[in-house]
Amino acid sequence: MAPLRRLVVGLGNPLAGSDGFGAAVVARLRETGVLPAGVLLLDAGTDLLGHIDAFLPCDAVVLVDAIVGEGRPGDVIVVGERTFERWPESATSCHHVSPLIAVKLFRTLHPQAATKVTLVGYCVDKVTLGIGLPDGAVAAGAAAVTRLLGAGQSARPPDLLPRTP
After folding, report:
1. Other C-beta atoms within 10 Å of 132: how many?
2. Which residues 6+ apart lie within 8 Å of 31 measured at CB?
3. Which superfamily does CATH assign the domain made up of 6-150 to?
4. Which comes out higher in pLDDT, residue 99 or 52?
5. Using H for helix, E for strand and C for coil, what is the string for the chain?
6. How many CB atoms lie within 10 A of CB 154?
7. Is 90 exceeded by the pLDDT of residue 22?
8. d(CA 37, CA 14)
């Protein structure tokens, strides 16, 4: 049996405050190195669409992003694809192409893909400007990803994919 291949995709602009959540969580996971073997980390910036083909060889993809209009502001939530696919396309992201739309496109382009997609979201009521966000939010996001992927099984650092410029 082939080893699991899992991808964690951090989304957002670190210069836009809360929108930098995905990038900050990926950076924290790189620093801690607690993820099991077979996990790839990708800081996709604001270009998830340019990376959807990276989902295809994966058993699981975890998208990490700030989300608008879901949950209480400041909460970190874990949402399965079956739930977020029902959200309004315009209300779930701080980006022009939301994770929801990108995943729908991935499913349209690759209907045979068995890739499981999960969203770890930092709930916000609006995108803020400036650098930084609460350290507790970043820690909660990293912990959620770690739980989803069963971390602690390997001491080696996760594989890294290059950051989108």
Report:
1. 13
2. none
3. HybD-like (3.40.50.1450)
4. 52
5. CCCCCEEEEECCCCCEHHHHHHHHHHHHHHHHCCCCCCEEEEECCCCCHHHHHHHCCCCEEEEEEEEECCCCCCCEEEEEHHHHCCCCCCCCCCCCCCHHHHHHHHHHHCCCCCCEEEEEEEEECCCCCECCCCHHHHHHHHHHHHHHHCCCCCCCCCEECCCCC
6. 15
7. yes
8. 27
Q: At what angle do helices 21-32 and 135-149 cross, to 10 degrees?
A: 60
Q: Which residue has the higher pLDDT, 129 or 75?
A: 75
Domain ranges of the chain: 6-150
Question: How do 39-43 and 159-160 pair as beta strands?
Answer: parallel
pTM greater than 0.90: no
Q: pLDDT averaged over the chain?
A: 80
Residue-level pLDDT at 146: 93
